[in-house]
Design brief:
The chain has two helices and five strands. It has a five-stranded antiparallel beta sheet with strand order 1-3-4-5-2.
Length: 137
């Protein structure tokens, strides 16, 4: 199971003392970069002339994140459509495992030379499934 551990710092927080809703996008993005890092290192997308682009994010906020809290962000599910990939991410308190937030993120892969969406192939699905199984706390 792929997860990223992050400690919430004061600079993540707003005047109310908790993580602002816009910062959640950055935290979720950090976890997606960790998720994709093995494929990026091996130039999986680059060698296929593909760009990985977020086209939609829906976030549900359950509990506030506060300074010094350690969170785990898990990519919990990947589903495939013809031209898009949808991943679900959950932010949990590391100590209590309480769900703090969940998000559904939709991506498309674009051909780098044309900017046109590409069909999600079996090869891409296999790579994402492989990435999902990597342990990287």
């Amino acid at each position: 199971m792929n997860k990223t551990t992050i400690k919430i710092r004061g600079y993540h927080c707003d005047a109310y003392g908790h993580v602002n809703n816009a910062r959640y996008l950055e935290l979720l993005e950090e976890a997606r970069w960790v998720f994709l890092e093995p494929a990026i290192r091996e130039k999986f997308f680059e060698s296929r002339n593909l760009l990985f682009v977020v086209v939609n994010i829906n976030i549900s906020y359950k509990k506030p994140l506060v300074p010094n809290q350690v969170i785990e962000i898990q990519l919990t599910n990947v589903s495939y459509n013809n031209k898009s990939i949808i991943v679900k991410q959950e932010i949990k308190d590391q100590k209590t495992q309480a769900l703090c937030s969940s998000a559904e993120v939709t991506f498309v892969l674009l051909q780098s030379s044309t900017g046109k969406p590409q069909t999600i192939t079996e090869e891409i699905m296999v790579k994402f499934d492989e990435l999902s199984r990597i342990e990287n706390a």
